[in-house]
């Protein structure tokens, strides 16, 4: 096991004030079945910020997100988390990285053979927490996502879509990660539930100080939760800037997307 | 052809990973016991029913079809050898492939399409350790046990026919069983099922973990598992029978 691989390499991604990036994606290319999805993505995420990756369906947003925790390996390029290169790591080597970076899946991906308590306890037990600590921590994180402790006994299929997302978020933050990756957090939810999830993402950043990367095609959500926005189009970053810059951007592709108009570059490949 | 090679490659890799994780602590004893119950104990009625009626029908065929050759007296001999050496192991394995193999693929496949497998990985756990190892271990332990039980029930099925249908004395039937059946028959018959269990488990897990394309994908993978496992059982059975016959003739002593 070599979890320290790349730790001694210079961190090359820094912001204007010289602060090193927590997550650094450089020149990442990825193709599926010969069809290119990512054609060279460069993206830095700095500690404490919320970066939104905005883009249409099939633009490669979720694929980008999966590269950060090694669920996918790039064909080319480099991914670093906390200065450590993760792209060539084995599943064993990735475990410490994955404990630092929580992942909220689109449908929640709760284990449907376990109740809510065991779902949230799962990463804690995997990380070697004692049962006494687990019993204390589970109600704590349920409270953080605004759920009653009684929910712990329920099975995932008894929960609404919004509650599933909350439980999944509770599971993702249970081991106190430095960063949380959100894959389409508001997709499939009604507007009211979407708003509460957006607020929850904001509150995670405020209360826990975690770095967040949010993948979405929901423009409203992007502007509400993001500090910076990266617009993904045709497998490349077409725009990168603050929310204010995104609103006033004249980039024809971003404008077309924000106004809901089709654009020839929206379809990848 | 490429697909077949890929399937063999994936099977080999998963086999290696399963061996690696099977010996790595902590041993998932709770999960293994749960799977032994779900895959093994819950299969008892199905396996038992199959075995009793197979033994009984063998008894019928031997008594009536082969009666011209004077086989009626040897119902116990025929039934016990056929059941213990071939029918018990193979039919039990095929029934388990249908019930358990299909179940494993459907369960793991559904987990794959709902991103639960990715969630396991993202939470720092290994799907092989958490899902594959308990199922493989449970199958390799339970299938031979189920087979021994099927053997006994099959021979009892034959006993029912011999006594109720053709009026043999039970003592006579048992005498014929003991006359021909050796420990070697039981060893060669049951020994094969360790291999069958491996085939069923590994095929079911490879297919389940590799599911793409939603509910259709799960359905296709489940069908593939049953077909591939059945083929693997029948083909390997021939070669395993040859192997055990070779062992029996080469090292054949009093026991064999």
Would you mind describing this structure in some detail?
The complex is a heterodimer of chains A (269) and B (256). With 269 residues, chain A is an alpha/beta fold. Chain A has one domain (49-67, 89-258): 3-Layer(aba) Sandwich (Rossmann fold), CATH 3.40.50.300. Chain A has helices spanning 61-68, 91-100, 116-126, 131-144, 161-173, 191-208, 219-225, 243-248, 252-258, and strands at residues 23-32, 35-45, 50-55, 76-81, 84-85, 101-104, 179-183, 211-216, 228-233, 236-242. In chain A, helix 6 (191-208) links the parallel strand 7 (179-183) and strand 8 (211-216). Chain B is mainly α and 256 residues long. Chain B has one domain (28-245). Chain B is 84% helix and 0% strand. In chain B, helix 3 (44-64) packs parallel to helix 6 (127-165), helix 4 (75-113) crosses helix 7 and helix 8 runs antiparallel to helix 9. The longest helix of chain B has 39 residues, at 75-113. The model of chain B has no long low-confidence stretch (mean pLDDT 91). Chain A binds chain B through residues 66, 69, 71, 91, 95-96, 98-99, 102-103, 105-107, 109-112, 122-123, 126-127, 171, and chain B through 111, 114-116, 118-126.
Record the SSE blueprint.
The complex is a heterodimer of chains A (269) and B (256).
Chain A: E1 23-32, E2 35-45, E3 50-55, H1 61-68, E4 76-81, E5 84-85, H2 91-100, E6 101-104, H3 116-126, H4 131-144, H5 161-173, E7 179-183, H6 191-208, E8 211-216, H7 219-225, E9 228-233, E10 236-242, H8 243-248, H9 252-258
Parallel strand pairs in A: 3-8, 3-9, 6-7, 7-8
Antiparallel strand pairs in A: 1-2, 1-4, 4-5, 9-10
Chain B: H1 2-22, H2 29-40, H3 44-64, H4 75-113, H5 116-122, H6 127-165, H7 170-180, H8 183-209, H9 214-250
Helix pairs in contact in B: 1-6, 1-8, 2-6, 3-4, 3-6, 4-6, 4-7, 4-8, 4-9, 6-8, 8-9
């Amino acid at each position: 096991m070599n979890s320290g691989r790349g730790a001694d390499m210079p961190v090359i991604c820094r912001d204007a004030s010289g602060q090193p990036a927590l997550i650094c994606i450089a020149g990442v290319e990825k193709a599926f079945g010969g069809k290119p999805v990512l054609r060279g993505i460069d993206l830095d995420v700095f500690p404490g910020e919320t970066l939104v990756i905005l883009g249409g369906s099939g633009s490669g947003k979720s694929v980008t997100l999966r590269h950060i925790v090694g669920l996918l390996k790039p064909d080319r390029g480099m991914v670093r988390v906390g200065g450590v290169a993760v792209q060539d790591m084995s599943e064993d080597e990735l475990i410490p990285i994955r404990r630092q970076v929580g992942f909220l899946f689109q449908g929640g991906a709760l284990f449907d053979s376990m109740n809510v308590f065991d779902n949230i306890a799962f990463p804690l037990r995997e990380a070697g927490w004692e049962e006494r600590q687990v019993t204390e921590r589970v109600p704590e994180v349920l409270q953080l996502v605004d759920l009653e402790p009684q929910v712990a006994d329920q099975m995932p299929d008894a929960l609404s879509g919004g509650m599933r997302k909350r439980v999944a978020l509770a599971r993702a933050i249970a081991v106190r990660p430095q960063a949380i990756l959100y894959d389409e957090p508001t997709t499939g939810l009604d507007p009211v539930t979407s708003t509460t999830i957006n607020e929850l993402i904001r509150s995670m950043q405020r209360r826990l100080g975690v770095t967040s990367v949010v993948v979405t095609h929901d423009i409203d959500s992007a502007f509400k939760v993001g500090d910076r926005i990266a617009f993904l189009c045709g497998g490349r970053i077409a725009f990168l800037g603050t929310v204010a810059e995104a609103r006033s951007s004249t980039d024809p592709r971003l404008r077309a997307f924000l106004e809901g108009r089709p654009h020839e570059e929206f379809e990848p490949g | 052809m490429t697909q077949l090679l890929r399937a063999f490659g994936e099977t080999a890799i998963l086999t290696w990973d399963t061996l690696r994780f099977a010996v790595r602590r902590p041993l998932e004893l709770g999960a293994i016991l749960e799977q032994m119950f779900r895959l093994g104990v819950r299969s008892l009625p199905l396996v038992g029913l199959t075995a009793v009626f197979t033994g009984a029908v063998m008894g019928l065929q031997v008594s009536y079809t082969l009666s011209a050759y004077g086989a009626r007296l040897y119902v116990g001999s025929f039934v016990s050898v056929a059941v213990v050496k071939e029918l018990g192991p193979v039919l039990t394995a095929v029934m388990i492939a249908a019930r358990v193999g299909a179940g494993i693929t459907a369960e793991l496949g559904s987990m794959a399409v709902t991103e639960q497998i990715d969630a396991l990985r993202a939470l720092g756990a290994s799907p092989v350790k958490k899902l594959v190892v308990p199922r493989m271990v449970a199958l390799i332990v339970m299938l031979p046990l189920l087979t021994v039980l099927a053997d006994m029930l099959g021979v009892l099925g034959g006993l029912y026919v011999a006594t109720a249908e053709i009026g043999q004395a039970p003592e006579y039937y048992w005498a014929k069983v003991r006359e021909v059946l050796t420990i070697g028959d039981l060893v060669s018959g049951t020994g094969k099922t360790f291999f069958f269990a491996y085939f069923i488990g590994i095929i079911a897990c490879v297919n389940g973990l590799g599911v793409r394309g939603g509910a259709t994908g799960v359905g296709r993978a489940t069908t593939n598992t049953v077909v591939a496992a059945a083929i693997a059982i029948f083909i390997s059975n021939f070669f395993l029978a040859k192997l055990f016959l070779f062992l029996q003739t080469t090292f054949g002593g009093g026991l064999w």
